[in-house]
Amino acid sequence: MSWNVYLSGEIHTDWRAEIEDAVSKAGLPVEFSAPVTNHAASDDCGVAILGAEQNKFWHDNKGANLNAIRTRSLIEKADVVVVRFGEKYKQWNAAFDAGYASALGKAVIIMHGQDHQHALKEVDAAALAVTETPAQVADILRYVIQGKLDGY
């Protein structure tokens, strides 16, 4: 069986590549998907495809709707959804993705630092695992896929 893992959340660090590299080195049967991580393309896709908007609300709305086609489809197909909350920005979209995935009954893994612990307590409560590092996510995937734990 091949596992489908959706990597949601912050786009300003290489956490996705770290997980993908660790999973690849472990030889796990995983296919990864993610939102569009080019920030400008993600913000402007709606007006680039459907036409300009003078009002910023409608500019953003067009982009959000187009991005939702991708996000919803990929989350629905995922076996596991990993949601990363970064240090620098508030990722409201990541919180939405976590809630959507949870509502669909998906296995959700949340990743954030201790400084977000209080703010994300409800999101964390809906997750099956809460981690701080990409290595922990890779170890969880290795465990759930192989059913083996190092040293046991």
Question: Describe it for me?
Answer:
This protein has 152 residues and is of the alpha/beta class. The chain has six helices and five strands; from the N terminus they run E-H-E-H-H-E-H-E-H-E-H. The chain has helices at residues 15-25, 39-50, 56-77, 92-103, 121-126, 134-146, and strands at 3-9, 30-33, 80-84, 107-111, 129-131. A five-stranded parallel beta sheet has the order 2-1-3-4-5, sandwiched between helices. Helix 1 links the parallel strand 1 and strand 2 (30-33). The protein is globular.
Strand order of the largest sheet: 2-1-3-4-5
Radius of gyration (Å): 16 Å
The percent range for strand residues is: 15-25%
CATH class annotation of one domain: Alpha Beta
Question: Count of helical segments?
Answer: 6
Secondary structure tally: strands = 5
The ordered H/E elements are EHEHHEHEHEH
| Fraction in helix | 40-55%
Going by helix content, strand content and strand pairing, the class is: alpha/beta
> Any guess at the CATH architecture of one domain?
3-Layer(aba) Sandwich
